[in-house]
Amino acid sequence: EEDWKAAVARTPSTPTPGAASTGGGGLQGTLRSLETFFNGVETAATAVMKDVARGGSPASNVDSQDENDDPEYVRLRQYVMQLDHALAEAERQMGRMLRRQSRQADQLAELAASFRALCGMEGGPDYQVDEVTADAQAEAAPVAARCLLLASRRCLELSQDTRTQTSQLADAVQPTMSEWLRAVASLKSVMEDRSALVRRMKGTDALIARLRVSVSKLQATPGKEGRAAEEDFRLQEAITLSAQLRGDHEALAARMAEEVARFQKSRTEELAMTMRSLAAGEARLASDTARAWRQIEQGIAGVAAAG
Fold it and tell me: Are the beta carbons of 156 and 110 closer than 8 angstroms?
């Protein structure tokens, strides 16, 4: 993990995955935390891939079956595992954020309904009347009732706008993240197949070495001709299996090359564009929400001043 940690350390104030907070500044604070986190993911991923291209030193925590593997493959494997974790965490945090915004839209709609009910209790239009009738009745209603009616309508508008923008954000970001996760999962699957195949190849090569020694000893021992023939038969089977496994390995290597090429195509640019879309959408929603609450405040102040 040293390459990953070093890349993250070079990014100023990069939080660990999952550190995006929902407190301290409301939506804008959340946006800043998420933007910093996503920038860290992008920077670290890019740095590790550049190290792979340069042929940097492999990570030290490599699985035992990869100890003798090509260093470039080991680095790529480590990068894929780290990227899989980072992308999964990013998708989880985005899902939490979008669900929170959906709940906020529901809560605003409930608040609007409460204000409208209170409006009727304060001598304003009844909850069941249509908007035209409510406007007519509001003209003769007390100030408190008119303020509650205005707040109810603006909260309902804000609820609908929040729900619409949240849906648009989800449609713009989630499919891309899901596609990235599928691509990483596909690449991981090929790597797992390769690891299993390499283990079989190593096991078969070790068996061949043991059988060669056994056959040689048995052939040199009088009276062991039958046992030697049996061991030699097992040896030939193992040699045939080894050749088959090496052919499978070549086919798997070609498949892995295709998966890597598909995965690497526009990887950093596409992820950066997705993060920018998310940041822009969150900034727009935060701005619209603040403006809506200011309008509610100004509207209530105007009604109260007019008496």
Answer: no
Claim: this prediction has a pTM higher than 0.85: no
Chain centroid to CA 285: 21
266: left (phi over 0), alpha (psi -120 to 50) or beta: left
Number of Cβ within a 10 Å radius of residue 265: 10
Instruction: Tell the residue number behind the tokens 């915004």, with chain if given.
Output: 101
End-to-end CA distance of the chain: 67
Q: How many C-alpha atoms does 281 have within 13 Å on its Cβ side?
A: 24
In this structure, what token pair is assigned to residue 110?
A: 């409930």
Closest CA to 162 of 289, 28, 29: 289
pLDDT tens figures, 6-36: 444 444 444 444 433 434 444 444 445 444 4
Q: Which residues lie closer than 8 Å to 152 by C-beta, 6 or more apart?
A: 112, 113, 115, 116, 119
Task: Give dist(CA 191, CA 207) in Å, integer.
Answer: 24
Cβ atoms of 282 and 27 closer than 8 Å:
yes
